[in-house]
């Protein structure tokens, strides 16, 4: 029980990586708010956790909407009595070459990945500072926080920016006992990635098999996807770390695709 009685908000937790972290944290004794745009799916995940005898709450939240974020964080605090850990994870992917990237889609990407991280951080930090309990903020970055790929301009820009945001949160939060770190996974087979395979095949004029082998896993050491468990284990390591010695860091989990 590494997170016994810790109150946690995880954005984008109705699917993929966020959901797996929610299930894992709940098994470790945390009270978990499943904050997601898809309310019905968030409720279903919360129900799955409660059916296993653990504590969870489904929360409707568009991370790019300040009011929705503040309301969702307030609802979680009212239910759980505080917030100790934020996992800012909600994300989408849109791919185009830069010269064809619609400005509206660029803005949507930055709103979800970067504004969402800022707004949820701001809402949780003010509570963490006042509570005197400190806290841990975890951003879901990517190998794309360190490396670039074709067609992903706003994703790569936003994921790099999360490292900058994390370092400022680490500096400002230290005096209040708040730490911040970024997890940078390689490709994980979630709905977000499954959707990209045919899209990239079409845009690049290659087979789906080649998108996986020659693009996604090309630079990994064993040609393997990172798994949900790999990412959840890293999130648990960050969340349960016993002191604030580890802060302002980015941890890459990618089968060696990127080495620091
Ligand atoms: P996913 O599509 O399985 O899940 C994303 C979740 O975010 C969904 O439940 C969706 O409803 C939610 N969401 C989308 N927009 C939202 C919004 N505006 N407000 C609240 N919730 C919203 O995707 P995933 O692969 O699990 O990705 C989760 C995070 O991990 C993303 O930040 C992604 O960039 C990052 N990541 C994924 C991979 C990968 O290979 N899958 C690799 C590195 C980083």
What does this structure look like?
The protein has 260 residues and is an alpha/beta fold. The protein has eight helices and seven strands; from the N terminus they run E-H-E-H-E-H-E-H-E-H-E-H-H-H-E. The protein has helices spanning 16-27, 39-51, 66-80, 103-131, 153-173, 191-204, 208-216, 228-240; strands spanning 7-11, 31-36, 55-60, 85-88, 135-140, 178-185, 249-253. It has a seven-stranded parallel sheet with strand order 3-2-1-4-5-6-7, with helices on both faces. Helix 1 links the parallel strand 1 and strand 2 (31-36). The radius of gyration is 18 Å and the shape is globular. The model has no long low-confidence stretch (mean pLDDT 97).
């Amino acid at each position: 029980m590494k997170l016994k009685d810790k109150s946690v908000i995880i954005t984008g937790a109705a699917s993929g990586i966020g959901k797996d972290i929610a299930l894992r944290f709940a098994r470790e004794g945390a009270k978990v708010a499943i904050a997601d745009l898809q309310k019905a799916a968030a409720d279903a995940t919360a129900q799955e956790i409660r059916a296993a005898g653990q504590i969870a709450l489904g929360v409707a939240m568009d991370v790019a909407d300040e009011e929705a974020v503040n309301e969702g964080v307030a609802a979680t605090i009212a239910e759980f009595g505080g917030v100790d850990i934020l996992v800012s994870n909600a994300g989408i992917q849109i791919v185009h070459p830069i010269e064809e990237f619609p400005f509206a889609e660029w803005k949507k990407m930055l709103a979800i990945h970067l504004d969402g991280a800022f707004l949820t951080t701001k809402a949780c930090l003010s509570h963490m500072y006042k509570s005197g309990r400190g806290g841990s903020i975890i951003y879901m970055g990517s190998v794309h926080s360190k490396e670039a790929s074709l067609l992903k301009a706003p994703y790569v820009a936003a994921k790099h920016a999360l490292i900058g945001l994390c370092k400022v949160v680490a500096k400002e939060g230290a005096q209040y006992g708040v730490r911040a770190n970024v997890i940078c996974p390689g490709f994980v087979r979630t709905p977000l990635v499954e959707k990209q395979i045919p899209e990239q095949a079409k845009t690049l004029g290659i087979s789906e098999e080649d998108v996986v082998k020659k693009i996604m896993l090309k630079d990994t050491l064993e040609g393997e996807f990172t798994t949900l468990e790999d990412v959840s284990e890293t999130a648990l390591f960050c969340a349960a770390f016993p002191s604030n010695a580890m802060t302002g860091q980015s941890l890459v989990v990618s089968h060696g695709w990127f080495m620091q």
